[in-house]
Amino acid sequence: MKTIIVPLDLSDESLNGLNLAMILANKTGADIIMVHVIGKYTGDNYEVTENENQLAQTKLEGILKRYKEKISLKFTLSYIIKEGKIFKEIADLADRHEDALTVLSTHGTSGFEELFIGGNAYKITSHSRNPVITVRKSKIPSNIDNIVLPLDVTFQTREKVPYTAELAKVFGSKIHVITIQLGKLKSIDKKLHQYSTQVASYLDTHNVPYTVEHLHGSNITDVALDYSRTIGADLISIMTEQEKSASNLLLGNFAHQMINKALIPVLSFPNYHLRVTAEDIWTLGAFNP
């Protein structure tokens, strides 16, 4: 990664995303851009826009000053204030930077509680063409030692592997590959074992330590989270599973549940992106349908 985009609503809770971004930047040298989005006003509301802009600038300057001592020579920390729809402006900003990662804090705790300014965490993740890490209120890990990587039977489930492997190499992490069987169909069990073997081969080739576990349960999210707690995982790597509605993109059920329930950071990948890493998979020749 070269650039880390950190959306902030200027609350203390949203700084969780910045705290994790600092850890990532110290390891990778990626520059951090904090972004605050205000509503776009016209005409008589011009004064309102200016007041919001000034308030945001004052607060962001304060954050810069507070985090100055944490900034190493490896990366820069800056901010930008934009006007418009939060999820669109953030996704567009990430698209304009090569090899960008968005790290954002969610504010919800459980159930139907809204996240990050009225659900924008979901919207940002579902509309992004780049990887996104969502962070809850829980303690930010000082290092990413253990990464859980769930596999399913979809063709795209393996696309997250190269990026996750590179992240693991940077942090010296162990990747815990898991498959979760909901029923007893032998065809699905065979496919899951095939995919896990392919992923293991890839990790072997790239000298990334790993484990493989085949689990069973009635809810994929709950099984994955229970396993993550058992091994003390610091990160879960999933696919976004975007679903198209009549007028919008929505998160798939698994991604939606995972972001809402996970107490550790969740790294999400859009199915239709990862152009370079997907090429890496096919070049290796280890991953076949």
Q: How would you explain this protein's 3D organization?
A:
- By secondary structure, the protein is of the alpha/beta class.
- It has nine helices and twelve strands.
- Strands 3-2-1-4-5-12-9-6-7-8 form a ten-stranded mixed beta sheet, sandwiched between helices. The chain has a two-stranded antiparallel sheet with strand order 10-11.
- It starts with a strand and ends in a 5-residue tail after the last helix.
Order of strands across the biggest sheet?
3-2-1-4-5-12-9-6-7-8
- Beta fraction: 15-25%
Which class of secondary structure composition applies to the elements? alpha/beta
Low-pLDDT sequence parts: 108-118, 242-250, 273-287
**Domain module count:** 2
Would you tell me the overall average pLDDT?
82
Rg over CA atoms, rounded to whole Å, is 19 Å
- Overall shape: globular
* CATH level 3 topology of the largest domain: Rossmann fold
| Largest sheet composition | 10 strands, mixed
The top level CATH class name of the largest domain: Alpha Beta
First CA to last CA: what distance? 28 Å
Q: Please tally the β strands and state the result.
A: 12
**CATH superfamily of the largest domain, called what?**
HUPs
Number of helices: 9
Order of helices and strands: EHEHEHEHEEHEHEHEEEHEH
Q: Based on the structure, what is the oligomeric state of the protein chains?
A: single chain
Query: What is the percent of helical residues?
Result: 40-55%
CATH architecture of the largest domain: 3-Layer(aba) Sandwich
